[in-house]
Amino acid sequence: AQTVTQSQPEMSVQEAETVTLSCTYDTSENNYYLFWYKQPPSRQMILVIRQEAYKQQNATENRFSVNFQKAAKSFSLKISDSQLGDTAMYFCAYYQGSGNTGKLIFGQGTTLQVKP
Amino acid sequence: DVKVTQSSRYLVKRTGEKVFLECVQDMDHENMFWYRQDPGLGLRLIYFSYDVKMKEKGDIPEGYSVSREKKERFSLILESASTNQTSMYLCASTPPAGTWRGDEQFFGPGTRLTVL
Question: Does A44 sit within 8 Å of B110, measured CB to CB?
């Protein structure tokens, strides 16, 4: 079975600095997708960034980028120029489609505090 | 904009009560999901549905059932609530796998359920 592990329960960063959140996963599949979701305090979970396993190029969305190491099964999220609005819980997730539907498998989450 | 709503943000019930959690999406999505979120455990899949009247067990279905009579509505039922079902419950929906953004899940705001 696939598993996703986030080994950092809590992290903090000063505003305007860079922070990296770690994620590792375990799978025997070759084609899959990886995601980072953000859950701000008392607000809905939203997608931050997605990576398709067959693409070697790391995904980037504005200040958010990933370091995808397929052989090492590692998928870290880098947040540059951190802002107070980045304070949230971040979840790494693995997706594999199957038939009519696919399922997400989530990591334990990392709570990020951005300090002014 | 994509919208997933849940019937209550906060709910307090007593042990043994039957509890209904409702989720509605307005995106004509095929697939809908129920998760529970607990500290240190991330999100765990309870049940999902890829079509009206269809349902599949997730990783932790014990003590729960679901109903999907209409495409836009997916209900989670706790037949006899217990204190260990105190948790945050999140609903999500997604287009069918294989469609554009078919792997992205759109989440509701969550229901924080307390069972006394």
Answer: yes
- The b-or-e profile of B15-44 (16+ CB within 10 A means b, else e) is eeeebebbbbbeeebbbbbbbbbeeeebbb
Query: What percent of chain B lies above the pLDDT cut of 70?
Result: 91
| Contact call for residues B56 and B49 (beta carbons, < 8 A) | yes
pLDDT level of residue A99 (50, 70, 90 thresholds): low
Distance between CA A10 and CA B6 in Å, rounded? Answer: 28
Interface check for A104 against chain B (CB to CB < 8 A): the answer is: yes
CB-CB: which of A6, A97, A106 is closest to B103? A97
The separation between CA B83 and the C-alpha centre of its own chain, rounded to angstroms, equals 18
Whether B17 and chain A come into contact, CB under 8 Å, resolves to no
